[in-house]
Amino acid sequence: MKYQRSSALFDEAYKYIPGGVNSPVRAFKSVGGVPVFMKSAKGAYMTDADDNEYIDYINSWGPAILGHTHPEVLEALKKQAEKGFSFGTPTELETEIAKLIVENVPNIDQIRMVSSGTEACMSAIRLARGFTKRDKFIKFEGCYHGHSDSFLIKAGSGMATFGNPSSPGVTAGTAKDTLLAKYNDIGQVEDLFRHNQGEIAAVIIEPVAGNMGCVLPENNFLQKLRKLCDENGALLIFDEVMTGFRLAFGGAQEVFGVKADLVTFGKVIGGGLPVGAFAGRNEIMDHLAPKGAVYQAGTLSGNPLAMRAGLTTLQLIKSDENFYKNINKTAETLDFEIGKILNSKNIEHRINRKGSMMSVFFHVNAVSNFEEAANANHALFNNFFHQLLKNGIYLPPSGYETWFISNAIKEKEIDRTLEVIQQFEYS
Ligand code: KE4
Question: Is 208 exposed, middle or buried, given 0-12, 13-18 or 19+ CB atoms closer than 10 A?
Answer without folding.
Answer: buried
